Amino acid sequence: MSDGKGKGVIALKKLGVEVQKGDHYSCQKTQQSVTKYNSNGQTSSYQSEEKAAVVTKIGKSSTTTVKVFQRRVEETIHHKSLPPVKDKITHFSHRHDLHRYEVQKRDKINCNICEAEILDKAWSCESCKFFIHKSCESIPQKIKHKSHLRDTLILRSSTNYACGEFICDACCDSDKGFHYHCSPCKFDIHVACAGLPSAVNHPMHKNPLILCYDFPVRSSETVKCKACDMKINKKGWAYYNDDSKFIAHIYCAVNKKKKDSILAIQKRLQSLQMK
């Protein structure tokens, strides 16, 4: 901060105008027309020039401009025009419109797409008991995933397998709902599994664990998770550190009790989106 600006900010504080981080500060000269009346009732006009310290505060719904002159303070508030609030949407996976829904604490509703609990706002078809996070509305329908680079994965709301279920190639759990699918290869992964981070930190291990799509331990013996001491399915993914040989189930590594934010999952999926 320059000396001139520093003195200006101090002067503003004395007048009760706080300059905070993110505010735009400048010094400006303003001109205004002044009309002067003499004793004979005649008028004359001239331009008066004043210096003012100007602070612009940008908020979520408005922008406030504060002009501080030598003897007065002028404040102007410009309200931003907000986009219209949507009351309903259509989603490719559901035959009915989805309406806004405010989730109450007693509801205990899980999202049909990512399966994580919905804690605040959602889109819903109450008659069908279909609920999704507002953020899950824009999860991509086509992605290119590092675990299956040969083909594009398509988001599906159900499976065509005769048994009515799919087995996730990541966590090895069976399920019936939303997942990413490759028909030629019969490859399936949960939405949340598709959005797993490529590396994580774990409280039981000082160095990052890397997500492995092919089982990293070459052994015929049973391999147990270092976090829960339970057997790891070698057909699925695991988090692993090659130096220490520390291995963990994918949801032991990311701590399922503090399940990854759906916004973080969505952001990673958006980076995989096929145009």
UniProtKB/TrEMBL annotation:
Residues 92-136, 147-194 form the DC1 domain. The keyword Transcription does not apply. InterPro entries: C1-like_sf, DC1. It comes from the Eukaryota. Keywords: Repeat. Pfam families: C1_2 (PF03107). SUPFAM superfamilies: Cysteine-rich domain (SSF57889). PANTHER family: CYSTEINE_HISTIDINE-RICH C1 DOMAIN FAMILY PROTEIN (PTHR46288:SF27), PHORBOL-ESTER/DAG-TYPE DOMAIN-CONTAINING PROTEIN (PTHR46288). This is DC1 domain-containing protein. It comes from Camellia sinensis var. sinensis.
